[in-house]
Amino acid sequence: MPRYLLRRDRVMRYLSTKPCGRLLEIGCGAAALLHELSHLGYDCEGFDSSASAMELARRIATANPETAPRLLSRTPPRSATVDYLLALEVLEHIEDDAGAVRDWAQWLRPGGELILSVPAHMRRWGPADEWAGHVRRYEKKQIVQVLQAGGFAVHNIECYGFPAANLMDLMSRHTYFSSTLRRADGTPDREANNERSGIDRRAGTRAFAVMSTASGRLLLKFATIGQVLFLRSNLGTGFLVVARKK
Q: Which Gene3D superfamilies does the protein's record reference (predicted)?
């Protein structure tokens, strides 16, 4: 998915500059990012509440044992020993977001870093949010307040994705709408959509066909470079935050 790749570029650029340590990803999906971080030298663990996501992650780990993270059947004890906690596109799925942030803080050692991404701006709410089972999108002030209340000091915040992710959102609205799981009364089934959103890539199939070509790879390279010019604006589709535990 283009939006995933744009976010991944920012996360990898940041973590490639940091000293490696113990890293836990909550909501790891298929754990593709953890394989890349393991290759960099991080000691990686991952957990996802979706049973289907964890099954896919285990199959990928079996096929790539040299970079496989430890995949946890349940969240680990809250022992304040983790150096980095990743929660990418997770918080918007949780009703009690403030409570979740407080819980996450218990895994991090003092001074440890939470690297978090959430979709930006409620005015951008659309079919992709219903397809994914989101509860909300965030404004910058709102996500900063939630993190501060949970015991974190915000170190850096970016609004990533502009302009490529904005364009892709517009182009994929119909695909997301038609792929949303619905109840008998026609309303989106948030729980069912949430369960499969971390691994369902049907909405990105057309984009992958383009991105896998030489011209598509070149366009993606320009998109990752281009978004850097707008990270301090409010124009992107998501916020990427680095926050340190107090």
A: Vaccinia Virus protein VP39
Name residues whose C-beta falls within 8 Å of residue 179's C-beta, 6 or more positions apart in sequence.
131, 200, 202, 203
Classified as helix, coil or strand, 85 is strand
Contact 87, 104 (CB under 8 A): yes
In order of 71, 80, 107, the CA distances from 101 in angstroms are 21, 14, 11
* Pick from 71, 78, 76, 4: nearest CA to 38: 71
Asked if 89 and 241 touch (Cβ cutoff 8 Å), the reply is no
Q: Which CATH number fits domain 2-245: 3.40.50.720, 3.40.50.620, 3.40.50.150, 1.20.58.220?
A: 3.40.50.150
Q: What CA–CA distance (Å, rounded) separates 29 from 21?
A: 21
pLDDT of residue 213: 80
* H or E element in which residue 7 lies: helix 2-15
What's the average model confidence in pLDDT over 198-212?
66
Which one is predicted more confidently, 3 or 97? 97
Containing 238, the helix (H) or strand (E) segment is strand 238-245
CA 76 to chain centre: 20
- Which residue, among 66, 72, 61, has the nearest Cα to 26 in the 3D structure? 72
DSSP 170-187: HHTHHHHHHH--B-TTSS
Domain boundaries along the sequence of the chain: 2-245
Give the pTM.
0.93
Which segments of 70-224 are extended strands (E)?
70-71, 82-88, 108-119, 152-160
